[in-house]
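Input/output pair, single chain:
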Amino acid sequence: MLRFSKLQMKREMKRLYPAPNPQRKEEFLREFPYFRASCMEIIRNQIGYIQKSIWIFSLLLVIGGVAVGDYLDTGSNYDKIWCMSGIMPLLAVLAVTETFRSSVYGMTELEMACKHNLSQVLLIRMGVLGGVDFLLMVFGVLWIVGQGTIGMVQAAVYLMVPWLSACIVAFQIEKYTRGRETVWYCTAWGCFLWGVHGIGSKLREMVYGEEKFYLWFIAFCICIVFFAKQIWQIYQETEEWRNGCGASI
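Output:
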């Protein structure tokens, strides 16, 4: 009862004696002489922060997908699509785990205390990694459409859907887990998608057939909506996201 009374007293004191609003806060922040880094400087710093092994693994995955696709080539683009779309979840997992690498080592709070807004830093880092994956996807699309039997838009959707679906679940894993567990869970998810993709190798003509493309396009639109919502949550609610108590999707 005594403890409850103290809590009630604190609430009443806050209600009766509210803290005054800060005077000239915006003016002070505008005139404060802190170092202002340009956007390009931040991007260069984040590129330097990303481990070089991520670039190497991503490139090796694409080269491996191309090599297997050329080896299995039977004159149909389905073989190439199957090989390239199978590595997309692994590329996504590499990008997501590297974006949130600071949380693996328990450095999120320190990163939040830096002079740059954490949400902006995460989005810039994510944009750099996603941009590299996008370039690799463009290379994959051009490689797939080389025979001229499938359009670029269709090939892009076939590659984007597995990449986006892997990112969406990996973001949720990053949201609700901590430490090295996030890497293991995300890796397991990427390998699961890759394994399911491999099991369905004999069904690729049916899965990637023209008559099934509308299902892929619907899945692409749904993934885009969920992915955009997650990015918005990370930008608006970074601390809540990292504390696992942000708004769920």
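The CA atoms of residues 89 and 163 lie 5 Å apart. The chain has 13 helices and no strands.
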